[in-house]
Each structure stands twice: as structure tokens, then as C-alpha cells.
Design brief:
The complex is a heterodimer of chains A (352) and B (301). Chain A has 352 residues and is α+β, with helices and mostly antiparallel strands. Chain A contains eight helices and 21 strands. In chain A, helix 2 packs across helix 3, helix 2 runs parallel beside helix 4 and helix 3 packs across helix 4. The relative contact order of chain A is 0.12. In chain B, helix 3 crosses helix 14, helix 4 packs antiparallel against helix 11 and helix 11 runs antiparallel to helix 14. Chain B is flat and about 95 Å long. The two termini of chain B are 56 Å apart. At the A-B interface, strand 6 and helix 2 of A face helix 9 and helix 10 of B.
Chain lengths: 352, 301
Amino acid sequence: MAAVTLSEVRKSYGQVPIIHGIDLAVNSGEFLVLVGPSGCGKSTLLRMIAGLEEITDGTIAIGDRIVNDLPASQRNLSMVFQSYALYPHMSVRKNLAFGLLNLKMPRQEIERRVAEAARILRIEELLERKPRQLSGGQKQRVAIGRAIVREPQLFLFDEPLSNLDAELRVQMRVELAGLYNRLGTTMIYVTHDQVEAMTMATRIVVLNRGRIEQVGTPYELYNAPANLFVATFIGSPKMNVLAGTAAGGKAEIKGLGTLPLPDAIRSDGAISIGVRPEQVVIGGAGDLRIEGTISLVEYLGSEVFLYVRVASGETLLVQAPGQSQYKIHDPITLGVSSKEAHYFDGDGLRLG
Amino acid sequence: MSEATITPAMLSTAEVARAYREAKAKRAKRAGLLKHVFLIVTSLIMIYPLLWMLASSLKPDNQIFGDLGLWPREFQWQNYWAGWNALPVSFTRFFWNSTVVTVLSVIGNVISCSFAAYAFARLEFSGKTIWFALMMMTLMIPYHVVLIPQYLLFLNLGWVDTYLPLIVPRFLAGDAFFIFLMIQFFRQLPRELDEAAMIDGCSPFKIYWAIIMPLSLPAMATAAIFSFIWTWEDFLGPLVYLNNIEDYTVPLALRSFISSDGVSQYGPMFAMSILSILPILLFFIIFQRLIIRGIAMSGLK
């Protein structure tokens, strides 16, 4: 188990900066998830920690060792790749043992570790098979097995579940979480899937365009997003954002009316008001009453999502109970409570 | 029509449809027959020279050019025995010489070209693009253009009348065609394999040796097959560099059957020609399996 510290880490390809000076402290034994849209630099950052990508500037330390110039193999870490990257010409057993053989580990110890990993991941009966004879989920298990036999101080995962179908992804998510609880090793996990991030992480790092937008627990990110980007990126379906103008403790929302601002929000000028779909009240109770028409109904069984077109021309997303019977084109009255909403200034930064 | 009954009109429609189907099947059969006849005739034309050579290797000299048939009136098996020992040096020696030159050339080509290809496909080094362009440009230079400068070079090195000019260049990744073939193959292998191997503690050489090379058997086998064929049947190289009959390779030895005084032993020559193509056939049969096995190894994801 080791802590990882990134200080002012930068990466440029030629003149194009990709990572703009990242400072990040990963605690020992933490399950840290790097999440962000495509091209935000999350995989690059992970690969820099792994030693597969050179850093342009800054330092990366694993434990108390600065690893900038250490090759990947000497950083005492394991990585699980999106495509699994199993060696196709080797049996599962050889895939698991390959790294240990390179470390010139005694044969008995290799056998012990391979057997232990196979037992943990329930792949004992697959040991003599070649990767092409495995299903997607089995390949993923072997890839994880290859990572755990090394007994590293740090695990890196690069979108490991992306190639699996939805059902298997949920199953592997649970297994990975179980593995983390069992091993307790520091894990850094890259994903673009925020459900994976929310369900597995001790802490989440939200990245956007090579910068950290926010670091926090899933609870903090959901309930107190630091800016509009995090607010709209975390949470599925997305948070509704209403643009308005604040003055004298009230926000005037164009075409919809006035919302009194909570005492903590002391700001004048442009303001964005974020309301999550489950925070919109059907029936109109609250500080702002909005009339609208349902333009789409998405029935999910346990809940229903309503797309409501309101007077300002915007569409608000509203969560309703699964038993409710709404139909497209029905008129509907919505309510927003000022206490429950999130507020962001003209630059998109959180207020209050 | 509210009820499902078969009317005479419907019956005749069904008959017309059946007749149409039958006519169509007949036409397809006729077209298939024509196609096969065409292909068989063309194949026979293509293979005729080879069969003629085989037949001639079993005919007496006086029948070879007078009779274009493929079945000898009498089988002269002794052509093979006579051919083997017709020259001052036995063919055992020539086959051995050819085998030494060819096997070493194949090994040299496969190892050195795959090293060069690995460097171009996977490693970073300064001037890579320029080196690559230079390498590709050598593809466009005909062998005959470099023959004389190369001869002078090897003459100065004192290598003429040895096998070194035929073998050493093969160990120096001199064949851009094979390098290019392998680069294209290596590029198809996912880089994540290299990266996984790096984390597993492999040096660039170990990545090549333990991961890239075993996965590139189809490309290696293709290079080996072509290298074998081209070296085995190379006439010009040995002609230029080898003067001593003891050192001759099989193609040079075959040429020795045609003497300048016009007295040639065609039967034995054809017999030896037939024997000279057997190693190529054998090598191809062995290595083409590797190509097929290599293809079956794909399916990484």
C-alpha cells in the first residue's frame, strides 16, 4: 500500500498542453477514481503514474520515492488495461506468471501466487486455456489476476469494464469493490462512466480539459459540486440549470419568475440555478412555481423521467415515482425550493 | 379471397414458378460447367511446362525435343543417377552448398529484418522518419544497379570466391521488402501488449523476443518462404561471386549442363531441375502451416 503524490504534473505533446499542472494527493489504501469526458486527460494522467508516458514537468511520488525517471516495471505497480492486453500466445497460467518470472522469483512462490490469484478470482479451471478461449468476463478476471499476483503497492485500472456488456459490468463492479475491500491496496481507477465512479470510489477526481475540477467523496460531489461542470457531469440524469440574474436576495429567471435566494447566497449579477431532477416538486409546492407541458415520458420501472417544456422554451427533467401515470402533452405544474437548489456565479463557481 | 382454396389459376402459377426455377437451375449448372472447364484448361496450360520438365527428366535425350507428350515411351530413371554425378563434382556437394547459403540467408533475413522492423514500428529514435524513407527508397533500386559497386566492395574485402557476399548482407537487414512487410504486421499488434509487458518488467528486447516475435509468426513465415525461394533459385549472385565449381550452388550447377560445344545432357539436367525444386516445395509446405496457425491466433479482445 502506498500513497501517491502528484505535484505540478504537466504533459504536452509538442506545443500542445494536455495536462496543465496537476496537484493531487492519493491516500494510502484509497480507491481513487479519475472521471471526466473523453479527452480530459484522465488516461494520460494514469499512464504517467504508470510510467508508460513521460511527464513534461512536475514530480510524481509513489510512497516516499519520486518515480519520474523510474521505468514502469520498477514502480511496484500493476495495471489493468481496457483491452485486457492478455498475451494471446500464452496460457492463462503463463499470463499470470510472466511478470513474476521476469522478477526472477522462485518457482514455488510463483506457483503459490498464481494459485492464490486464481482462487480469489475463481479462474482455477481456466489456467491452461489460451485467452482466445475465454469470454469477456473471464478475460477481465485474468487481467485482474495478472495485476494481483505481483502484490503491488498500487493498482491502476484504465477503463477496465468498458468492453463488457451491461450486466457483466455491474457484476464485475461488485467484484472489483469486493477485491478492494479484501486487498486494501491503493487503487487508481479511470472511467468515463460516472456510475462506476460513484459506486466504487472512496474519492473521485473530476477532470476536464487537463485540469482538476473537483476532488471529493461521491457524496460531496453530488451534493456540493464546486462548479457548474461538476454539477452537470455528476448525476444521471443531468442536473437542470436555469439561467437568471440575482439582485437584492432574489433571482429573476427569464420567462419563469422570481426565486428568493437563501441567506447564504449574497451575490448580484448573472447566476445559474441548478436543480436535480429529483428535487423538482410536481404539483408546484416550493418557492418558484413553473407551468409546463410534458414533451417526453421515459418509464424506467422504479421511476419515471418527464421532459417538461416550460414557458422560457427550456426543457426541464423531472423525476416522478414509478407508479405515476403521466402522458405526453399533459400540462403539469412544477415547484422549485430555493433551499434545495445549487447556485453558481457568472463564472460557473459555486455560491454559498 | 376470403378462403384459402387452391384455384386452377393458382396451380398454373405454381407450375410456371417451378418451371422457371428448374430452367434457372439448369442455366446455373451449365454456367458452372463452363467455368470449371475454362479453369481446368487454363490450369493445364499453366502447369504444362512443369509436367513437360518432369516427363523430359524421364526421357532419353533424343526424345525430349521431338516429342511434346507428357508420357515417356520408356522411363529413363537412370537420368537421375547420371545427372547427380554428371559434373566433375557431385550434386550432393551443390545441394549442400545451396542449403548452407539458403538456410543462413533465411535465418539472417528473418532475424535482422524483424529487428529493424521492430525498431521502426515500436521504438523511438532520432531521425526515424528519414531512416524509414531511406530504407523504403532502397526498394526502388534494382539489384543490377548496385551489383558492380557491391562486387568491388566485396573484392576489396577479399570475399570473392567465398559465400560471405551471399550471406553477410542478409544479417544486415538489407531487404527493405521484408522489413516493410514486418513493420505492417507489427503495427497491427496492440501497443497495450507492449505496455503490459513493460509493466511486467520486459526490456525492449524482451518485448520483441517474448511478445512481438511469437505473435508475428505469419509475417516471419512469409518472409522465410520468400527468402528461401529467392535465395535458393538465385543465379546472378552465385554467378558473380563464385568461380570455383566446388562452391557452386544448384542453379549454377544446372547451368553447367549446357556446355559451350553444344553437347548438352538435357535428360539429366531436367532430372536435376526437378530435384532442385523439391526443397522449395517442402519448405513451403512446412511454413505455410505457420501462416495459417498465426492467423488463428488473432482474437485478442
